[in-house]
Amino acid sequence: MRWMDSALKFTVLLMLLGLVSTVTSGSPTKDGFSHCERTVKKWASSSLAVDIKEDKHTLRDMLFFLHVPRTGGRTYFHCFLKKLYSSTLECPRSYDKLRFDPSKTNCRLLVTHDDYSMMTKLPQEKTSVVTILRNPVDRVFSTYEFSVEVAARFLVHPNLTSATRMTGRLRSKTNGISTLDIWPWKYLVPWMREDLFARREARKSKGQNYVKSNDSYNMEDVVMPLHVYINDPVAKDIIHNGATFQVAGLTNNSYLSESHEVRHCVQNYRTLGEYVLEVAKKRLDNMLYVGLTEDHKESATMFANVVGAQVISQLIESSSRIESLANNKSEQSSFFPHSEPDNNHNLNSSTDQKASEFASTEDVDATNEIMTVGKLMDAYEVCISSLRKTQAHRRTASLKRISPANFTKEARQSGS
Ligand SMILES: *[C@@H]1O[C@H](CO)[C@@H](O)[C@H](O)[C@H]1NC(C)=O
Ligand SMILES: *[C@@H]1O[C@H](CO)[C@@H](O)[C@H](O)[C@H]1NC(C)=O
Ligand SMILES: *[C@@H]1O[C@H](CO)[C@@H](O)[C@H](O)[C@H]1NC(C)=O
Ligand SMILES: *[C@@H]1O[C@H](CO)[C@@H](O)[C@H](O)[C@H]1NC(C)=O
Ligand SMILES: *[C@@H]1O[C@H](CO)[C@@H](O)[C@H](O)[C@H]1NC(C)=O
Ligand SMILES: *[C@@H]1O[C@H](CO)[C@@H](O)[C@H](O)[C@H]1NC(C)=O
User: Fold this and answer.
1) For residue 348, what pLDDT band results from cuts at 50, 70 and 90?
2) Among the bound ligands, the one closest to the CA of 329
3) Atom 5, ligand 5: which residue's CA is nearest?
4) Model confidence at 407, in pLDDT bands (50, 70, 90)?
5) For 245-303, what is each residue's pLDDT tens digit?
6) What is the 8-class DSSP label of residue 128?
7) Where is this region: Disordered (predicted)?
8) How far, in Å, CA of 135 to CA of 243, rounded?
């Protein structure tokens, strides 16, 4: 992280430390502890051993964007990466690990919520990793709000049966990626959806005789209160320490079977979290770029200058290589093809398909035009403002369905 000044670096460390210190304590036993200690230490030393890379600031052939949920990574995906990489260079089904098979393609860009264990499926020495981190308290608030927001869209349906049936039909028809297919939303959204319908049914049977709360984060007649949500085993497994586990490759979605034992060990014996922290910090240190959600402007500028600039020169280089190859065979080719119709990102505001997280208003993919860092920044500014407008609109429309609950900055402050 040479690119990050020391203040930023310090903030990153604090974020990670904050996370690890909240690891929950299980029911520790002495034998269990020494077994776990051995397991975690073994994992940590093998993880640290393979991570030695020189020249970590140079972009390699493959760019892996480790997208920690609710850090703002989606704007980087739509407003930077989609403007640089054409659809053909994007690994197929980036967000869908079940169908991901990197060996089949020559893709250059992988953007996913999958954790660092994804590296075992990629050519490690040819892969650069980038990520964005966020203050854990805000990340948790945002995760709660987004779970509810997406689930609330289903309240257009008269009941849960009809909501789930409709979703299944739509999904098989459109073949698109929906938020419901990708970790962690595939657990969090159905959980909240079921809960919202149950609370609505309960309200109906109570009539007007329920106690109304004025705190949106604790309005149990309408939506699962934040404190209930965050203390649920599902949240403990998926959200607590979420960013640290993702960077360490230890999420509940990990590709490696030993990851699950390591995770359970550090969940039960919090002191072992130190080993995880060491691995996570080392990984961040070896990344090409680490952004911070809070320092949005600075992070975006840095991304354009560090990652963007290198992607541009890399693609120009391979483009001319391909072109001269093609010319020798008297064929037409370009590394900057016009975008294919991008059906996966297609959204329809009047159907449940809009549950897709991949909202985008203008997916102007990479084009034949020569890109520069300056143009990239300009395109980014335009893109992000329209993306934010769309997101705000969708959020308002969705939260209307759980009114009077409304997640605003003011409510966050008075509620907590
Ligand atoms: C759910 O709603 C559908 C559509 O209105 C209706 O046909 C069905 O009977 C309802 N199911 C239950 C369990 O109420
Ligand atoms: C909720 O109501 C209580 C009194 O009933 C009041 O003190 C508090 O400020 C209100 N909170 C919000 C968020 O409106
Ligand atoms: C991940 O968490 C979800 C929700 O708690 C759970 O349903 C799923 O089985 C977990 N997966 C693993 C591998 O632990
Ligand atoms: C294309 O052909 C020229 C001369 O025929 C040769 O010098 C050049 O190396 C070839 N380029 C590639 C990429 O094969
Ligand atoms: C979106 O939904 C509307 C209304 O249901 C429909 O007329 C339109 O064809 C849909 N568009 C797409 C792209 O699916
Ligand atoms: C929720 O709050 C936002 C921002 O203050 C506002 O624009 C929106 O209309 C509110 N929604 C409801 C349903 O009150």
Assistant:
1) very low
2) 4
3) 350
4) very high
5) 999 999 999 999 899 999 999 999 999 999 999 999 999 999 999 999 999 999 999 99
6) E
7) 328-362
8) 10
For ligand 3, which residues put their CB under 6 angstroms from it?
187, 234, 237-238, 252, 260
Which is the closest atom of ligand 2 to the Cα of 410?
A: 13
Extents of the domains making up the chain: 6-135+242-302, 138-237+398-415, 314-380
Does pLDDT of 326 surpass 70?
Answer: no
- pLDDT, mean of residues 330-339: 36
- Least Cα distance to 271 among 21, 17, 5 occurs for 21
- Round to whole Å and give the CA distance between 316 and 188: 41
Which residue's C-alpha comes closest to atom 4 of ligand 3?
A: 234
Of 350, 389, 413, the closest CA to residue 156 belongs to 350
Q: Which of residues 40 and 11 earns the better pLDDT score?
A: 40
Other beta carbons within 10 angstroms of residue 258's beta carbon come to 14
Distances (CA, A) of 399 to 86, 193, 223, 393: 35, 13, 11, 10
Q: Mutation test of ligand 6: which of 148, 394, 396, 413 has the most ligand atoms closer than 8 Å to its C-beta?
A: 396
Task: Evaluate the omega torsion of the peptide bond into residue 341 and state whether it is cis, within 30 degrees of 0.
Answer: no
